[in-house]
Amino acid sequence: MLLSWGLELTPEEMLAIRWHMTAWDLPMQSPEHKESLNAAKAKTPLVSLVQSADGIATGLLER
């Protein structure tokens, strides 16, 4: 959606946005999705950083 609005994203940013929900992403139940998540984490630390920030925002800031 962001790309269709003209926002330019790096491949790393796209991976971080895609995987920010991690465990809450329902398709994560399949081995293929888990492998894709692990590959994204191996490619860029931004994936783990955004996941952590999302968890902090949910667990601490959105009470």
The total beta strand count reads 0
Percent helix, as a range, is 55-70%
- Unreliable stretches, pLDDT < 50, 5 or more residues? none
Mean pLDDT: 85
User: What is the gyration radius calculated from CA atoms?
Assistant: 13 Å
* Total domains: 1
Q: How large is the count of helical segments?
A: 3
Structure characterization notes:
There is one protein chain. With 63 residues, the protein is an all-alpha fold. The chain has one domain (11-61). The protein contains three helices and no strands. It has helices at 11-19, 31-43, 46-61. α1 packs parallel to α3. The radius of gyration is 13 Å and the shape is globular.
Task: Furnish the topology, listing elements before pairings.
Blueprint: H1 11-19, H2 31-43, H3 46-61
Helix pairs in contact: 1-3
